[in-house]
Design brief:
The structure holds two protein chains of two kinds. By secondary structure, chain A is mainly α. Chain A has one domain (3-97). Chain A has three helices and no strands. Chain A has helices spanning 3-14, 16-44, 52-97. In chain A, helix 2 packs antiparallel against helix 3 (52-97). Chain B is built from 28 helices and no strands. Chain B has helices at 2-20, 22-47, 52-59, 64-78, 81-93, 99-112, 114-124, 130-144, 149-181, 191-209, 212-224, 230-243, 245-252, 257-279, 281-295, 302-321, 325-335, 361-386, 391-394, 400-405, 415-422, 424-438, 443-476, 482-507, 511-528, 535-541, 547-575, 586-598. In chain B, helix 14 crosses helix 16 and helix 18 runs parallel beside helix 23 (443-476). Chain B is elongated. The relative contact order of chain B is 0.07. Classes of the chains: A mainly alpha, B mainly alpha. Chains A and B meet through helix 2 and helix 3 of A and helix 25 and helix 28 of B.
Chain lengths: 98, 599
């Protein structure tokens, strides 16, 4: 077994690459939570008391946050799919060896 | 002159010593191997300083007691207070920690060094330590040849420890053999005179070896075979503690003013502690005896008693200094000041870039980032004044309509002059320093550095565009044509809004808020683009402005757009630490603008 393969195997076994990905996932999840909380506040804001300019700013903020939430969820899905793929690959390799 | 004589003199003295005494040669070789071990150990720990050490340092120094604890633990593990001091100076230089935290680390490091004396006295002198050295050296060297940075680091640490043990072995053997030819103990001097002489020797030995650790190990080796008396060994230990401050002083020469203040604090602490130890020597000896009795150390076990003394006098010193740390910081801030620079149009220079931060790639990166923020602060001043707006108004809650009305000056400012004094020099230094820092960075770090360099370029471009914009801005914001006047004032207002937003981003530590503000700024920049939004066409079509005004407005709105785009790009690099992919992109900005139009 080459040194490179040995290192890759050890990394896979210890889940070192996953560690990096899970850190990223956690960070995105935390950010999404914050953005959703912010959106909820904006959605609940009574519009009657707002003037035209304030209403415009509110709608703009809502549009941006909605877009960011969408983006965040997409990134999270991609990260989850990658992890799923990696674990499947690892399982396949182990079964193959058996 | 002295420097030129110093090195050859030492070499000649050593050569003569080796010629007349093979035992002296063995002891000196032991010291040399020990010092080489320390260099190797430091090198090894530096391999791990590309993130982990720094992250721990930043998190564990927010309180004084934590800083002291950090200093103690890291020095105990790395067995080098010099490395900890140099790293601390580097962190202060990069502006990552303050002077109070730095002093805390140094105080802790002082106690941390005592673990070396305990290890040597309790283990190194009793066990055949060289037996451990050989396998460590073999494994260490094999690992040094590996490509992986972490394996290399472990290799250097093992080799370092191996050499430390081997050095101790040679010192011990040398002193034992030396005993048969010359009895150094016969040169012992009693009383106060002896105390002062041996303190002096301790200082000198540590200055030459650049390591109090090595001096104390040497003292213990000599003491173990009875080549020096216990009292003289105590004096040598005090001297070593003063001599060690020299490393920090040398390290601080290339640092900024806070680094110099830290070295001064280290010197004051060690000299005051040493003075107290000298004044209370008799009481200290009695206390050491009592503690040794309590710990079950035999009365004639002078090496362990020396370790007790070393710990006692350093712990007393730290406890004594803790209540005065804030006062010491204030004292140093008033006594050691940066070289005076006159206000206003003086040549501004870099604040964070100095050789001390080159110690690790992380400190270098942090310093460059901080310097970029400094460059932006200067650019902020020039851009606001170029827009004829007061800085204080932007930083306040004043409505933007009023900010625009409250002009900074009646005439245009000389932006070229400002650029020359506050931007050009710093920008040049950042680029030059980045090239230097890049040589020790990993591929990923070089990529990040490249982005920071781009952010600097963005700042400079924004200042240059402000210069072009200013000419017509001053002219038309006072024009009798209300349409052109209104357009230029709304241009000023939009840019003032962006500058205020960037200031809010800089002050915020909430990631979601930063991302939202940046995204908003991007949307506003596109919305305010009068060429894209058709406003300019409308003014021309309805003949509300002259042809000359129209071309000026078209060019200047281009400059305003570029200033906004450059400043946003800069803020994205400098103020967004994680998840930068969450900032909305050009296509998404258009999507939002279209949504609005539909509404």
């Amino acid at each position: 077994m080459s040194v490179k393969k040995f290192i890759t195997d050890v990394k896979n076994y210890l889940g070192l690459d996953d560690f990096k990905k899970s850190g990223k996932k956690k960070s995105i999840k935390r950010l999404l939570e914050k953005l959703k909380a912010r959106k909820e506040i904006l959605d609940k804001t009574p519009r009657k008391n707002l003037n035209k300019k304030e209403l415009k700013a509110l709608k703009e903020e809502q549009a941006i946050i909605t877009l960011q939430i969408k983006k965040g969820e997409k990134i999270l899905d991609e990260l989850n799919a990658e992890s799923h793929k990696d674990s499947k690959k690892l399982k396949g390799e182990k079964n193959g060896k058996k | 002159m002295l420097r030129r004589i110093f090195l050859p003199s030492i070499l000649i003295v050593l050569a003569y010593g080796f010629w007349i005494s093979p035992d002296f040669k063995e002891i000196s070789a032991g010291v040399a191997i020990f010092l080489f071990g320390m260099i190797s150990l430091e090198e090894g720990f530096k391999a791990f300083s590309g993130g982990t050490l720094e992250r721990i340092l930043q998190k564990s120094t927010n309180k004084l007691y934590k800083s002291i604890g950090f200093g103690f633990v890291t020095t105990a593990i790395m067995q080098s207070s010099s490395l900890v001091s140099v790293l601390t100076i580097s962190f202060i230089g990069a502006g990552l920690i303050g002077l109070t935290q730095g002093i805390g680390i140094i105080l802790g490091a002082n106690i941390g060094t005592t673990t070396g004396a305990w290890l040597m006295a309790g283990f190194g002198l009793k066990v055949k330590i060289s037996a451990y050295a050989m396998p460590m050296l073999v494994f260490g060297v094999i690992l040094i040849f590996q490509k992986a940075k972490s394996l290399k680091g472990i290799g250097y640490i093992l080799t370092g420890l191996g050499f430390l043990f081997l050095g101790i072995h040679y010192m011990k053997e040398g002193f034992e053999a030396f005993k048969n030819t010359i009895d150094l103990a016969s040169f012992a001097v009693d009383g106060f005179k002896g105390l002062m002489i041996f303190i002096g020797i301790g200082v000198l030995a540590t200055v030459v070896m650049q390591s109090s650790h090595a001096t104390i190990v040497l003292i213990l080796a000599a003491l173990a075979v009875g080549q020096i008396t216990y009292e003289n060994a105590l004096a040598l230990t005090i001297g070593a503690n003063i001599g060690t401050t020299i490393t920090a002083i040398i390290g601080s020469l290339s640092s900024n003013i806070d680094g110099k203040r830290l070295a001064a604090a280290h010197f004051i602490f060690n000299v005051v502690t040493a003075t107290i130890a000298v004044l209370l020597m008799d009481q200290m000896i009695v206390s050491v005896d009592a503690i040794s009795d309590f710990l079950g150390i035999a009365n004639d076990n002078h090496t362990l008693k020396l370790a007790v003394f070393d710990s006692l006098f350093k712990i007393i010193g730290v406890l004594m200094f803790i209540p005065f740390v804030d006062k010491l910081v204030k004292f140093l801030q008033t006594k050691l000041k940066p070289s005076a620079v006159s206000e206003a149009k003086s040549f501004d220079t870099v604040k964070y870039l100095n050789d001390s931060v080159l110690e690790t790639s992380m400190t270098a990166m942090a310093a460059i980032k901080k310097e970029t923020k400094h460059l932006y602060d200067n650019a902020f001043e020039i851009i606001t004044h170029g827009l004829n707006i007061k800085r204080s108004n932007i930083l306040s809650d004043m409505p933007l309509e009023e900010v625009v009305k409250d002009s900074y000056s009646q005439s245009a400012i000389d932006i070229d002059d400002f650029y020359h004094h506050k931007i050009k020099g710093i920008y040049g230094e950042i680029i030059d320093f980045s090239t230097k820092a890049q040589s020790q960075m990993a591929h990923e770090e070089i990529k990040e550095l490249y982005k920071i360099k781009l952010a600097n370029k963005d700042i400079v471009e924004a200042v240059k565009d402000t210069k072009h914009l200013q000419k017509n801005l001053v002219k038309y914001s006072k024009s009798t044509n209300t349409h052109i006047k209104s357009e230029y004032n709304s241009m000023r207002k939009d840019l003032a809004e962006l500058l205020r937003t960037i200031n809010l981003i800089a002050m915020s530590d909430q990631e979601d808020e930063i991302l939202l503000l940046l995204s908003k700024a991007k949307v506003h920049t596109e919305r305010y683009d009068i060429i894209a939004n058709g406003k300019l066409d409308n003014l021309i079509r309805n003949r509300l402005i002259s042809n000359e005004m129209a071309t000026s407005l078209m060019n200047d709105s281009g400059y305003a757009y570029n200033i906004s785009a450059n400043l946003i790009a800069m803020a994205e690099i400098i103020y967004v630490t994680d998840n930068s992919e969450m900032i909305i992109e050009e296509e998404e900005v258009k999507e939002i603008l279209n949504q609005k139009d539909e509404q």
